[in-house]
Amino acid sequence: MAGVSFTVAQEGVVFGPGVSTGTDIPVCFEELEEGAYLVAQEVPRGLVMTTAQSATVEVNAGSTVTLEFGSWFRSETGEEIADLTPTVTGGDSSSSGGSSGNDGGSILAIVGLGAILLAILMLGVLIFILVRQSRDSAT
After folding, report:
1. Which of 75, 90, 95, 97 is the most buried (most CB within 10 A)?
2. Model's pTM, two decimal places?
């Protein structure tokens, strides 16, 4: 649909707006740094959003993320339209595989868990070294 405005934001920095032309040509935001971004749509008068107004996506180096929002013309009767989650797909330029918008959170959880386990292991090694040194100095 023509006239839909999109913005991409990260930590208070807003990129855009990008405005749809009503053709199959997507609105693109290129050369973004890695990280989580909030993508939001604003529809012109007469259109009704059929998806949520915004979605968070995770951008990785060398990858392309596709986010599809939906809208349609307001009906004559003004009936309510269900609020659905935007479709997020992603992958690097050589892959057409999809991923859900929640993959960034899953990866972040795994990395966090790994960091905690590494910290526990390092603490154990430190305690072992201190105990060994105190035993060596006592003898």
Report:
1. 90
2. 0.50
Q: How far apart are CA 59 and CA 42, in angstroms?
A: 22
Report the half-sphere exposure of 79 (CA within 13 A, side-chain side). Answer: 7
What are 61's two structure tokens?
């180096």
* Three-state secondary structure call for residue 121: helix
CA angle 21, 23, 25 (to 5 degrees): 85
Domain ranges of the chain: 2-100, 102-139
Could you tell me which residues are beta bridge partners of residue 58?
36
- Could you tell me which residues come within 8 angstroms of residue 95 by beta carbon, excluding any fewer than 6 positions away? none
> What φ, ψ does residue 119 adopt, rounded to 5°?
-65, -40
